[in-house]
Amino acid sequence: PSQESGRWQGMYTLEGESGRFQDCNSGQTIAVLAEGDSVLLEQAYLNTRSHASASMLAEVVGRVQERPVADPVLARQGRKELALRVERFVTLSSKTNCSWP
Questions:
Q1: What does the pLDDT average to over 41-47?
Q2: For residue 86, what are the domain limits?
Q3: Is residue 4 scored above 80 in pLDDT?
Q4: Which residue has the higher pLDDT, 100 or 14?
Q5: What pLDDT shows up at residue 5?
Q6: Whole-angstrom Cα distance, residue 25 to residue 63?
Q7: Phi, psi torsion values for 5, nearest 5 degrees
Q8: Does any domain span residue 53?
Q9: Number of domains, the chain
Q10: Considering the domain boundaries, does residue 101 fall inside one?
């Protein structure tokens, strides 16, 4: 994903307490920041998932941002990673992949 704000469609899942989003266009998986409407996306996911590790098709409006990696040693070395800031939760589908009908 680029670092622009826009509409994103991809597979959403929770790993531990952290949301992960796999972009349907690029296939890249990135972290979901616990900001903005991410709480609405997470609640919808928790209320509708079929099992604990389910991936569900989500659509959001958001922005991909660079942030320091979680590992403190790598962060001190200047390592960064991309993360999605959900500005608006649009929809969550029970579809389990990005393929289109």
A1: 95
A2: 5-93
A3: no
A4: 14
A5: 81
A6: 15
A7: -80, 140
A8: yes
A9: 1
A10: no
Phi-psi region of 68 (alpha: psi -120 to 50; beta: other; left: phi over 0): beta
Residue 64 counted as domain residue: yes
| Tokens read off for 88 | 């608006």
Residue 98 falls inside a structural domain: no
**pLDDT at position 69, please?**
86
What average pLDDT does this structure show over 20-35? Answer: 94
Q: Which CATH number covers residue 71?
A: 2.40.50.540
Mean pLDDT confidence for 14-25: 92
Render the chain in DSSP notation, one character per residue: --SSEEEEEEEEEEETTEEEEEETTT--EEEE-SSTTHHHHHHHHHHH-SSTT--EEEEEEEEEEEEE-SSHHHHHTT-EEEEEEEEEEEEEES--S----
